[in-house]
Amino acid sequence: LAKTTQPISMDSYEGQEVNITCSHNNIATNDYITWYQQFPSQGPRFIIQGYKTKVTNEVASLFIPADRKSSTLSLPRVSLSDTAVYYCLVGDKKIGGGADGLTFGKGTHLIIQP
Amino acid sequence: DAEITQSPRHKITETGRQVTLACHQTWNHNNMFWYRQDLGHGLRLIHYSYGVQDTNKGEVSDGYSVSRSNTEDLPLTLESAASSQTSVYFCASSESTSPSTDTQYFGPGTRLTVL
Question: pLDDT tens-digit profile of A7-24?
Fold first, then answer.
């Protein structure tokens, strides 16, 4: 199984750039890396997905080194509303094909202060 | 607009009772998932389905069952509720046939308390 390791929590301030790193040493060749955001009392929400190098959308950037054993979610100029739990996921695959669904770790609690 | 809904949003039941949580999506997605979320454990996969009549066990499937009779619905049944099943339950759906690349859309959650 491609498990992930993230920091349990992080603190930052409004206007700063925040980088959250995720380790996934056993990532499979066909697996993508996906990040979700979850606010209290809500379901997780997709943020960004990538396979290698760099991906950027209107919300965040995702940096993936060549060995793909880690990835970094970058949130530019955070605000108080970015306080949430951020999950890094990689897909799990059964031997021989098919899939078992995604594995969510415990996530990173990001707290943004004024 | 397409959406995914869960009902009820809150439920209190007693140990030993059968409970069914509903999940309904209007995206016409083939894939549907049930997760539970507990403090200290993040989200854990209970059951999932890749289409009508297809169901699969996830990481924590003991004590739960699902059935998929149509594309839109995946009800989750607790056969005999236990206090250990007190949790927040999330349903999700996705379109892609490869969970490695798909985006999962989550419902608002059901908070279940088993007394």
Answer: 999 999 999 999 999 999
CA B80 to chain A, closest CA, distance in angstroms equals 25
Supply the pLDDT for residue B97.
62
Residue of chain B with shortest Cα separation from A105:
B42
Determine the pLDDT at residue A110: 97
Contact B42 A44 (CB under 8 A): no
- Taking the C-alpha atoms of residue B98 and residue A30, their distance in angstroms, rounded to an integer, is 10
pLDDT of residue B98: 60
CA of A105 vs chain B CAs: smallest distance (Å) = 6
Residues B10 and B97: beta-carbon distance below 8 Å: no
